[in-house]
Amino acid sequence: MQLSxxxxxxxxxxxxxxxxxxxxxSNEKKKKSVSNSPLTNxxxxxxxxxxxxxxxxxxxxxxxxxxxxNNNNSAIANAMKDFKSSAKHYRQKLVSQxxxxxxxNNENQEEKNTDDDSNEDVKEEEEDATNEGDEKxxxxxxxxxxxxxxxxxxxxxxxxxxxxxxxxDTFGGPSSSKAAEEMVYWRDVPSxxxxxxxxxxxxxxxxxxxxxxxxxxxxxGWNNIRMAMETVVGLAMAxxxxxxxxxxxxxxxxxxxxxxxxxxxxxxxxxxxxxxxEQEGLDMITMEQFLSETYGRLRYTETGxxxxxxxxxxxxxxxxxxxxxxxxxxxxxxxxxxxxGDCLAAFPASGNHKxxxxxxxxxxxxxxxxxxxxxxxxxxFVKKLPDQYMGKPVDVDSPPLERLxxxxxxxxxxxxxxxxxxxxxxxxxxxxxxMRIRYLVHSYAFLFFEDWRHDLHMKRYMRDHxxxxxxxxCAAARIVEALxxxxxxxxxxxxxxxxxxxxxxxxxxxxxxxIIQNSRxxxxxxxxxxxxxxxxxxxxxxxxxxEGYDILFLDDFHHLxxxxxxxxxGMIDQLVASKGDIFLGCWHSTFTGFIMRMRGYHSTKLQxxxxxxxxxxxxxxxxxxxxxxAMRDYTPLSGAFFNREFPTSWRQIDKGIS
Length: 658
Description:
The protein has helices at 28-35, 38-61, 69-105, 112-149, 160-163, 177-181, 222-239, 287-293, 322-331, 353-360, 362-371, 378-383, 400-407, 419-422, 443-446, 452-464, 470-484, 512-519, 542-546, 569-577, 590-606, and strands spanning 3-4, 212-215, 242-245, 284-286, 343-347, 413-416, 426-429, 447-449, 494-498, 529-533, 551-552, 583-586, 619-623. It folds into three domains: 3-9 and 26-155, no CATH class; 190-464, no CATH class; 470-649, Rossmann fold, CATH 3.40.50. The radius of gyration is 30 Å and the shape is globular. Helix 1 crosses helix 4 (112-149), helix 2 packs antiparallel against helix 3 (69-105) and helix 17 (470-484) packs across helix 20. By secondary structure, the chain is of the alpha/beta class. The strands form three sheets. It has a five-stranded parallel beta sheet. The chain has a five-stranded parallel beta sheet with strand order 11-10-9-12-13, with helices on both faces. The chain has a three-stranded parallel beta sheet with strand order 6-5-8, with helices on both faces. Helix 21 links the parallel strand 12 and strand 13 (619-623). The chain starts with a strand and ends in a 35-residue tail after the last strand.
């Protein structure tokens, strides 16, 4: 992934993948006999001169050297690469010549074992010389990789190893690496970094103009914003478009201690975008870079006149976003019909028109296959589909129509990414309540891929990359470590998320005694209960203590959160709650939903009971009671998307990878 100036930095180099070349021991005397010969040294000197001449030619080709540092660095790197390749070739040639000479000298020897011994000696010299060259190349590449890994967006460092692990030394612990690694549910899948949408334009194509996707952040609380963000990330990846990140701005309910700490956020403040730059399938840029790249190229969709940003401004961080939002809606392509409640966003397996036609006709094909084409009311037909898959998921690599049938959830049409949309320079996805357009939907519930491998890649991307930054993860790890060491625990604890605050769903607003009554059969008084909550009045929970429950809150661990932005506290609550032995959450809550999904990821990694079907037998809802055991069995997409998370987002998503 190319990533530019997410934190105000400059574009960074992609780090090379680390090798695991084994260094073998060798005979030093034999090394010297080959590498220090006069002919070898002469050839090496000649090659070095050629390399320097090549570098000089490239440098002199540029009239103003100081303005072409990147080009010259590239020229130097290419020349040195050619030099090392040639050097290796000549080393091998020298060994071959020496072997031939020894073979000629041995022609008159009568004993076979002498021939065998001399041949073995030559083989060893050939291997030693090759290994010596490989060792030098490896050392140089490792040094180059080390230097490259220190150059990243925003001045932070990243490497491939960081993606599949959690390093907390620079964030204040926890005290043990085991406690940090316990938080890790994501994986490093090398093949995923090479995935590219079939619709992404090749860099060497005749039309080298990249395409963009812009969007309005959701106007709700953080977990609604996060959910919509995941969806547009999935859309950009599926379309092969460069994702344009909105400018840093205030977010609903994330404005604590304004003036004392940062309250203007970009998505790079929450997700590890620095670690995503090795992903070839998704490019991200800032709004400032987008406005600079497209300056003078966009036109008003109604008049065709050239459209410049409001006030000719390209830097909008911390500014009133409304004028820019209105402008974007007037200069970009908006597909008003793409509403998650009405249709599935469907992506062909390739850019071939036959795949587009297949998806455009998929609903008719499905009806013809299942009911011989005799369907009076297609909406009634699709409404009944989820019942067929309760506890009976289709295989993740099933044919498209089988997977489609399970994922329709009452939707009777597909919104196909066709050639008309594929040709647009900028597609914009807006959050506009007046038009009932809002992407408050899980990415996996809105995007449908004809190719099952594309589907699983998108789901893995959400698991492996759309996770909270290390600072937040490490803060949660410190609290999990403290809970495991708490006096009443034997390395285990239970967790709850009790939603109060401004929650509009009245059926979940029950008092503490009713919560206890609904949870008594699964909670234990022998274990501490960590409660994640937005209830500020902690006396609300006194009935728990009255009944003998040992309860703790994030407030009890402030000493472990020194220097952490308090606007991260809700995310830390989620991560801690995801590690409970038993967990009880709140139906309708997207906060609870993400906890459930992370528990699904952990269950898959640890292969806990029910993981093959995506079931979570130790996860429950305290409200509402009819949904208490909803996570016990596999459930297909059904009902309102935001009510809960579904097993399809974590079940067997690693299928097909090594």
